[in-house]
Every structure is written in structure tokens, then in C-alpha cells.
Design goal:
Structural class of chain A: mainly alpha
Number of helices of chain A: 21
Order of helices and strands of chain B: HHEEHHHHHHHHHHHHHHHH
Shape of chain A: globular
Shape of chain B: globular
Order of helices and strands of chain A: HHHEEHHHHHHHHHHHHHHHHHH
Distance between the termini of chain B: 27 Å
Number of domains of chain A: 1
Number of strands of chain A: 2
Strand content of chain A: under 5%
Largest interface: A-B, 31 and 29 residues
Largest sheet of chain B: 2 strands, antiparallel
Number of strands of chain B: 2
Strand order of the largest sheet of chain B: 1-2
Structural class of chain B: mainly alpha
Oligomer: heterodimer
Strand order of the largest sheet of chain A: 1-2
Radius of gyration of chain B: 22 Å
Helix content of chain B: over 70%
Helix content of chain A: over 70%
Chain lengths: 500, 478
């Protein structure tokens, strides 16, 4: 099939007009249908993907390429393609999208609007991971914002308006800087010929070209542009001190949107690092490396400490995301092959595991209408299946051997230990703290004396199980056979670690 | 002495507009005209003027001893004015704030403003510039005071008159200084004479230029001549506000571009600095003042101040490309601002323009609210809406010149502006309404169709803006 990437990206929004033809209650079926179809359409992508091609800065190595003139006067192209990094993220986005539709099953307010926004978001996320043109990338990146604003703002919790606008402003602030950086990169592209094509730019940098821009505010051009990109992506990850939007957005967002936020959106930041930011300025990256490691360690330890102090389950998981994304940064910052491979694996694993955690919190919130850890107790005796499923998810989040999280964290730590011993040791603390807050929370919610208010709590239902079980299977499967996913990206990433 | 009359054949639209002014002011004295719809005549006049400008092609000609210059630049802007005025007439028909008995006079005033704006886009002589500005200003004062029964209208109009005459006074003083420095009032010779004069770079040189600029910045409501703007916009009937927020502003920007177009290279850095400073202050002040507004018309007034600041970015670079992308953004700005005002005319009830009164309207008028939301997101400059592309090009020309400070200030400002636009969207879509929904049953569907007709090109240009780039490339001064 030709144009398979375009199909995968734009299929979700094609059903939006149909939503208004259906009864409001049936809108979710249309959304479920199209996410499943999208998945099926994408299967040839994964089957036909040539795992030995590098990609990254080699246009011949990008697969399923599509290219069309879009705005010829500026040389902006509608240019799509995938390499090992993007294909992994596409897989993650499709899985999470499907799970999130199931998690939205109980939405009862303005269903059509909800699923319309949801599908726009899905298209934008898929687009970010396949765009090879900076302007196209920026378009998808920004188009994500307004559906997200409405999804949090209309369907969220009590402080939703505050959380939604905070998310919106934070991300926009980062992306405006990124836009300026994109324009600057275009003007001072190495080799003279101006282009927005990411792969072409990376290729020229690899051939020894540099961005010959003038000093900006008395600082070297490359450093300023690097930092502008970095802040844009760092806000999305989020990296300390830009992380404060995350707990608010997570806590107020409806379950499905938390799942998407943690599962896919955060990965866009680190994807941006690997796709654009670091390989485009390899020299500045070396200059920045130590600082980046420090930020990663702060993320890991600070995130874990914050998680330990939370009384709200969802907020605890939100901070655990901050901590786990710190590992991704650490792996990338180390710049070794193992570190970067581990980082991308961790991106995938964190996506699936955290999605699971948010789904499970959503289950109990739907029934109890609160998420205070101290407000529960002894739930294991009323809802044994739920308790069992949750225990698996929590173990996965802790990084128990045999689960996927263990492999990726191990890879990252071995990778970074080769270059940064002390920071790696401190980061190990994050894992210990992680076990601490997870187990402690589990104990307070499921064991101990049964809170009499919840003696009739309903067991996890079929739809909810349908959304969680596939994720558990993935987690365990990749815990035992991690190579099944590593093969997709290792060629690309080994090359990337060489050039950084 | 040569006859100047043949020159008139180069400016048919001016002639048509001139005749229209006479007709409208004398209409009530002409028997038989009383029963004709004035709006119909006015729309015909606008169409005739539009077509006649279109027929003139892209030819460039200097007229009346270098007093006026007609070229593709002036023609495209004039055509834009006709369209905007046509939209204003449509708004008047759908607004409950207009007094039908004085329609003839209102159209007479609008034709006068239109003629003045056409002078502004063509003027190449400082005295013509003054005439053009005054021809726009004087009728505007009256239009703001159309709601005579309200004391706020009178206050706003008087404020407008005072600031206007003050600005013109400063401008005339500046012009006299320029004349004293160079001995000429023609823009073509003025700049080279200034560069050659012994006072080049001295305080008097800057004072003369800045003072002359005052009259023009007054028209675009740039800081520090913006104080009249929120009051006038709030007090005027909404269609007039919509008109004032776009057309005279565009004319003022066109005039500033014409004014600076003949500068010599040695001056470009100084002039860029002056305009950049005005741009930065204007957009920042406009935006931060907009944050506190509770009245939608005042909010859009401040937003239009900040947009003037953004548009000045394209002028600050002082080159042809910058001017073309100003035109590009102006077209999109006209679309989104007119769309937003039409939505306000439709959604607001009995002169209540508080943002609060729009709460929860998505439930009763979803299509209108979605159209309005698209206009607002576009004003905030988010992709995939046209406003983003406009801002993108302004950033683009500014970065080419290496004006990093201007680019960063503008970037921060577009983030700030998002907050208040989204505030309006939030009120309409997220907030619950306490109390009854307003009754829209007796309103026509024309405004809804119009807002959609604005929203669709906004999205189209946001995704595929080649046609507009090609059009802007034709807008050239010679």
C-alpha cells in the first residue's frame, strides 16, 4: 500500500464528521473502530520494517518515505518517514491510543466533542513521530495543544481549568522558543542551501558542517539555538525545573488523558532530543552533557522524593513519571550505546507501565470518587482481582526482574556507569525510593484494616480488564524477551551513540 | 502649466468614492432617492471601486507632481479597504446598535474615511499624508459618538478628538522640522536630503522623525498614542468598532511603510531601532493590559493594539519582504478580527459585552461558538490556523535581520496573549451558565454563515498558504 504512513497518521481524524451522524452514545464505538483499524493498517509497517537500516541522518535509511511539495517558496515539504526510533514510538502510540479509548468508555458528557478532540490528539501524536520536516513537526507538535486543553479543561477534575491553562501556557512557551530556533536553523543551515528537512540537516552536520550564525545576545549561535530547542523539549519531558505543570495536568485530567499524557506525550520530549536537538548540535551536546546528567539525577531523586510525600494516588504516579523520565534522560545524557538503547526502551516501557498505573487508579476513582491513599485500606479483601492486577503493575513500575522496566533501567544504569559513576550510584537511590513509595502506597490501599465505606466496592469490570491486561502481557513479555523490541531500534541508536 | 486632470484616470476608485460622498450627504435633499436602500447603493459603490482598482492592474504611476503614487501596493490595500467596509455594512445590518434613520450620513462618513485611507496608501508627500490622516480621523470621531444617548460615547469621542488633534499637532511640528532640515516635503528626496544634512544623527534629526511618526502611530494606536483606543472601541457601536480596529489601522501601517520606503541604506539601522522599540513596547503593553479586561470589546481593543505591535515587526526590518509579509498578516488579521466581531454582535445581548455573559453558550449556539473559537485561536497564533502563519513570517523576517531581542519579546508576547484569548474560549465552552440561555430565535443566520466564511479560510491558509504568499508577492512599491 502506498502512503501507508499518511494513512496511519490521518485515519483517526477521518471519522470525526461521522461522530456527528451517530447518536452521542455510539461515538465511542466509532472511536474504538477507527483506532483498531488504524492499528491493523499499521501492521505492514512493523512487518515490513527493515531492522538493519540505520536512518537517523541518512535519508536512504528512512523507510516508508513520503514527500510532497507543500510550501515551495520556503522549501517546506510534507515529508514523512520512519527509522528505528520512530517506529517504536508509533507502536507505543497505537497501543496507548487503543487503551485510552477503552479507558474513556464511561465518559458521559459531550461524548462527540470528547472523541473528536481525542482523535485530533491521536493524529497529532502520530504525526510528530513521523514528520521529517521541521515545520511539519512543529505543526503536529502544536496541534496537540488545543485538543489537550479541552480534554483537560472540559472533562477534567475540580481544578481542571487551572491545570489546563497551565499546561497550555507552559508548552506554548517552550514551543515558541523552538519555533524561533527552527527559523534560525533554516537561515544558517550548514552548506548554504537552506532547508527544513531534519534528515538533510543532520546529514550535513555529520559531514562536518556547522551552523555559521552570528552570536545571539553575546553567546555563540549554536549554544543559544541548542538551549532554545532543549527548553522546548524539556518542558514536555518534563525536566526539573519545568515539571510543575505535570502533577496538575495529571491529577485533573480524566483517566484516559492521563494515560495518553504519561504514555505518549512525555516521550515526545525525549524523542525530540534524539531526533533533532542532540544530533543537530553534537558539539554543544558534549558541552551540555554534564549539566544534563545533573538534571537527570535531580529528576530521578527529586521526583521520587516528591512521590514519597504524596497523599493522592494519581499525584504520586505523576511524580513517579518525573522520576522515571529522569532515567531516560540519564541514558541519553550518558551517550553510550547501552545508555541510549536503554533510554528508548525505557520510553516504551514507561509508556506501557504508567498507562497501566493510571488506568488502575482510574478504576478505583470511578468507584470511590476520591484518590486519597489514606482514605482506603484493606481493599484486597473486597476486590481481589483488582488487587492482584494492581500488584503486577506496581511491581512493573518498581522494576522487578522479569518485568520490562527492569531491563531498561538496567541498561541505562550500565550504560551511564561507564562514563558517570557517581551520578549513576545516586540514581540507584531513585530505584530504592521507587520501591519505597510504590510498596508503601500499595500496602496502605490494599492491606490493613478494611475501610467500612468500601466493603461493597465493585470488582474491576470487563472493559477495564480489557484495557489493562494487554499492557500486562506486553510488560511481562518484554521483561522476558526484551530483544523483540530492541531489534527495532538498536541499529539506529547504536549509530546515534557513535555520532554524539 | 500642464493640466493635472488626466491624472484622474489613474485613480478611478478615488473618483467613484468622491462622487459617493456627495451622493450620501446630499441624499436627503434629492427627491426620489429617499426610498432607495442606502446600503444597497453603498455596496454597489464598493463593488464598482473594487473592480475599477482591479482593472488598473499592477501599473505604477506618480501623480500630481509626486504628491501621490499609485502602484500595486496602494491598489491591493485599497481593495482590502473596500472588502472590509463591505463587511462592516453587513455587520451594521445585523446589529441592533445602529440607528437606521441616519444611515445615509453614516455611509457618507464611511466613504469619506475610505477616501482618506486611499490617500494614505498613496501619499508620497508629507502634506498629502496630513490630509489623508485628517480625512480619516474627523469622520471617525463622529462615528465613535453615534450612540449619542450614552455619555460614555461622548466622553470617548472627545478623548479621541483631543488625542487626535494633539497627535496631528505634534506631527505637523515634526514635519516643519523636517522641512527646516531638508527644504523638501517629498518623501523621495526627503530621506537622501536628511542623510546628507549636517544634522544627520543629531538629536534634532531623531526628534523630527519621531514627531512626524506620531501622527501615524496615533492611527495604528501604537504606544504612546494608544490611550483613546480602548474607550473609543468600547463606546462605538460594535460594527464601527470592528471597522476601526482593522481599516484605519491597516491604512496607518501602509502609510508608515510608504513613509520609510525611500530611506537610504545608511539610515536603516537607526530607523529599525526606532520601530523595533515602538513595536516591543506596543505589543507588551497591549497584551498585559488585555489580561485584566472583563469587557470583550475592550479586550479586543487591547488585542488590536498588540497586533499593531506585531505588525510593526514586519516594518522594522525595512525591506520589501517585510512589507509583503505585513500584507500577508493583514489579510489574515482582517479575517479573524472581523469574524470575531461578527460573533460578538451575534452573541451579545442588549449591549451587554461582559465576557461573563457568554458563559456556556456552546450549548445553545455550538456552530457560532466553534467559529468564534477558531478566530480567537488564530488571533493567538496557534497552528493550524492562519494567524500562526502570519506570525511565523513576521518572526522569519525579523530573524533574517538578526533582531533577536524583538523576536524573543514577540515570542513571549504571543504566549501571554494566549491566556486572554483562551479565557474567552473557556467562558464559552467550559463554564456553566447560571440562569437562562439568551434567546437567539429572532436572529438571522447570516452572521453564523459569515463567521464560518471567516473560519474556513483561516484554517485553509493555516494549512496551505501558497495562494496568499503569491498574492503578497504582487504587493510592491515602485
Amino acid at each position: 500500500m502506498d502512503h501507508i504512513l499518511s494513512w496511519v497518521v490521518f485515519l483517526p481524524i477521518t471519522v470525526i464528521p461521522i461522530l456527528w451522524l451517530l447518536p452521542a452514545k455510539k461515538a465511542k464505538w466509532a472511536a474504538l473502530f477507527i483506532t483498531i483499524v488504524d492499528f491493523i493498517v499499521a501492521i505492514p509497517l512493523f512487518m515490513g520494517f527493515d531492522k538493519l537500516k540505520v536512518g537517523v541522518d541518512d535519508i536512504a535509511g528512512m523507510q516508508f518515505k513520503e514527500s510532497l511539495e507543500w510550501i515551495p517558496s520556503l522549501g517546506i515539504q510534507y515529508s514523512l518517514g520512519v527509522d528505528g526510533i520512530s517506529i517504536t514510538m508509533i507502536l507505543l502510540t497505537l497501543i496507548i491510543g487503543l487503551v485510552a479509548v477503552l479507558a474513556s468508555w464511561n465518559i458521559d458528557k459531550l461524548q462527540r466533542g470528547y472523541f473528536a478532540m481525542f482523535l485530533v490528539l491521536q493524529t497529532a501524536m502520530l504525526g510528530v513521530f513521523v514528520a521529517l520536516d521541521l515545520i511539519l513537526f512543529y505543526f503536529f507538535w502544536e496541534v496537540m495543544l488545543f485538543p489537550m486543553y479541552f480534554l483537560i479543561g472540559v472533562w477534567g477534575g475540580p481544578r481542571r481549568i487551572y491545570a489546563a491553562i497551565k499546561f497550555f501556557l507552559y508548552t506554548l512557551l517552550g514551543s515558541v522558543g523552538m519555533l524561533l530556533a527552527i527559523i534560525a536553523v533554516w537561515y544558517y543551515a550548514p552548506g548554504g542551501d537552506r532547508t527544513f528537512n531534519i534528515i538533510e540537516l543532520l546529514h550535513r552536520v555529520q559531514e562536518g558542517g556547522t551552523f555559521m550564525g552570528p552570536d545571539i545576545f553575546g553567546m555563540p549561535f549554536a549554544k543559544v539555538v541548542f538551549v532554545a530547542f532543549f527548553i522546548g523539549f524539556a518542558i514536555k519531558v518534563p525536566i526539573f525545573p519545568f515539571h510543575t505543570w505535570l502533577p496538575d495536568a495529571h491529577v485533573e485530567a480524566p483517566t484516559a488523558i492521563s494515560v495518553i499524557l504519561a504514555g505518549v506525550l512525555l516521550k515526545m520530549g525525549t524523542y525530540g532530543f534524539l531526533r533533532i536537538n542532540f544530533p543537530m548540535f553534537p558539539e554543544v551536546f558534549v558541552w551540555f552533557q554534564d549539566f544534563l546528567v545533573a538534571l537527570a539525577v535531580i529528576n530521578i531523586v527529586y521526583g521520587a522524593l516528591c512521590a514519597l510525600a504524596q497523599t493522592d494516588l494519581k499525584k504520586m504516579i505523576a511524580y513517579s513519571s518525573v522520576s522515571h523520565m529522569g532515567f531516560v534522560i540519564l541514558g541519553i545524557a550518558a551517550g553510550t550505546a547501552q545508555g541510549i538503547n536503554g533510554a528508548v526502551l525505557q520510553m516504551f516501557n514507561h509508556g506501557t507501565i504508567t498507562a497501566m498505573l493510571f488506568l488502575l487508579v482510574g478504576v478505583v476513582y470511578d468507584r470511590a470518587h476520591h484518590r486519597r491513599i489514606a482514605g482506603f485500606g484493606g481493599l484486597a479483601s473486597v476486590t481481589p482481582v483488582y488487587a492482584a492486577v494492581t500488584s503486577i503493575a506496581f511491581m512493573a513500575a518498581i522494576g522487578l526482574p522479569g518485568m520490562s522496566g527492569f531491563i531498561s533501567e538496567l541498561l541505562i544504569l550500565t550504560g551511564s556507569f561507564q562514563v558517570y559513576q557517581l551520578p549513576t550510584i545516586i540514581s540507584g537511590l531513585g530505584i530504592i525510593l521507587g520501591a519505597g513509595y510504590m510498596l508503601w502506597a500499595y500496602q496502605r490501599v490494599f492491606f490493613g484494616k478494611l475501610n467500612p465505606d468500601y466493603k461493597d466496592l465493585k470488582e474491576i469490570n470487563f472493559v477495564e480488564l480489557c484495557s489493562v491486561v494487554p499492557l500486562i502481557i506486553i510488560t511481562v513479555y518484554l521483561g522476558i524477551l526484551p530483544n523483540r523490541i530492541i531489534v527495532f531500534f538498536e541499529t539506529s541508536l547504536n549509530y546515534l551513540s557513535d555520532i554524539l | 502649466m500642464t493640466s493635472t486632470l488626466p491624472y484622474l484616470s489613474y485613480m478611478p476608485a478615488h473618483l467613484i468614492m468622491g462622487v459617493a460622498i456627495l451622493v450620501f450627504f446630499l441624499a436627503k435633499a434629492i427627491p426620489g432617492l429617499r426610498n432607495v436602500s442606502p446600503a444597497g447603493i453603498f455596496v454597489l459603490v464598493l463593488i464598482a471601486a473594487f473592480v475599477s482598482e482591479l482593472m488598473m492592474g499592477l501599473e505604477s504611476k506618480s501623480l500630481f507632481f509626486n504628491m501621490l503614487q499609485v502602484d500595486s501596493f496602494s491598489r491591493f490595500y485599497n481593495q482590502l479597504f473596500f472588502v472590509i467596509i463591505g463587511i462592516t455594512v453587513l455587520m451594521m445590518k445585523n446589529s441592533d446598535e445602529m440607528n437606521r434613520s441616519i444611515e445615509w450620513e453614516v455611509f457618507g462618513l464611511l466613504s469619506t474615511i475610505c477616501l482618506g485611507m486611499m490617500m494614505m496608501t498613496s501619499a508620497t508627500h508629507l502634506l498629502m499624508i496630513v490630509v489623508g490622516i485628517e480625512l480619516v480621523s474627523l469622520p471617525s470621531y463622529i462615528l465613535v459618538a453615534l450612540n449619542r444617548r450614552f455619555s460614555t460615547s461622548k466622553e470617548a469621542s472627545l478623548k479621541y478628538v483631543l488625542f487626535g488633534s494633539f497627535a496631528t499637532g505634534i506631527m505637523l511640528y515634526g514635519i516643519s522640522l523636517l522641512f527646516g532640515l531638508t527644504g523638501t516635503l517629498q518623501l523621495k528626496s526627503l530621506w537622501s536630503a536628511l542623510a546628507a544634512s549636517p544634522n544627520f544623527g543629531s538629536p534634532i534629526y531623531y526628534i523630527a522623525i519621531s514627531m512626524t511618526l506620531a501622527g501615524m502611530t496615533f492611527k495604528i494606536a501604537a504606544v504612546p498614542f494608544h490611550f483613546w483606543c480602548p474607550d473609543a472601541y468600547q463606546a462605538a457601536p460594535t460594527p464601527i468598532t470592528a471597522f476601526l480596529s482593522v481599516a484605519p489601522k491597516v491604512a496607518g501601517l501602509a502609510l508608515i511603510m510608504r513613509f520609510f520606503s525611500d530611506h537610504v541604506p545608511v539610515q536603516s539601522e537607526q530607523l529599525s531601532t526606532i520601530i523595533s522599540l515602538i513595536a516591543m513596547i506596543t505589543m507588551t503593553l497591549g497584551n498585559f493590559a488585555a489580561l485584566r479586561q472583563k469587557d470583550i470589546k475592550r479586550l479586543l481593543a487591547y488585542s488590536s493594539i498588540s497586533h499593531a505591535g506585531f505588525l510593526l515587526m514586519g516594518i522594522a526590518v525595512m525591506n520589501e519582504v517585510g512589507r509583503q509579509y505585513v500584507f500577508f498578516y493583514i489579510v489574515i488579521y482582517a479575517l479573524m478580527n472581523m469574524g470575531a466581531f461578527m460573533a460578538i454582535i451575534y452573541l451579545s445581548q442588549s449591549r451587554n459585552f461582559e465576557i461573563k455573559s457568554f458563559a456556556g453558550l456552546i450549548k445553545s449556539k455550538p456552530v457560532m461558538v466553534v467559529g468564534f473559537t477558531i478566530c480567537l485561536f488564530s488571533l493567538a497564533g496557534l497552528p493550524p490556523f492562519g494567524g500562526f502563519v502570519g506570525k511565523f513570517y513576521l518572526f522569519w523576517v525579523v530573524i533574517e535581520k538578526g533582531f533577536w531581542a524583538l523576536a524573543v519579546v514577540a515570542g513571549i508576547n504571543s504566549v501571554v496573549s494566549l491566556y486572554y484569548y483562551v479565557g474567552v474560549i473557556k467562558t464559552m465552552i467550559i463554564d456553566e451558565r447560571d440562569g437562562d440561555m439568551p434567546d437567539f430565535s429572532n436572529q438571522s443566520v447570516v452572521p453564523i454563515a459569515f463567521v464560518l466564511l471567516c473560519a474556513i479560510p483561516i484554517i485553509f491558509f493555516g494549512l496551505y498558504w501558497n495562494p496568499l504568499v503569491d498574492l503578497s508577492a504582487l504587493v510592491q512599491m515602485f
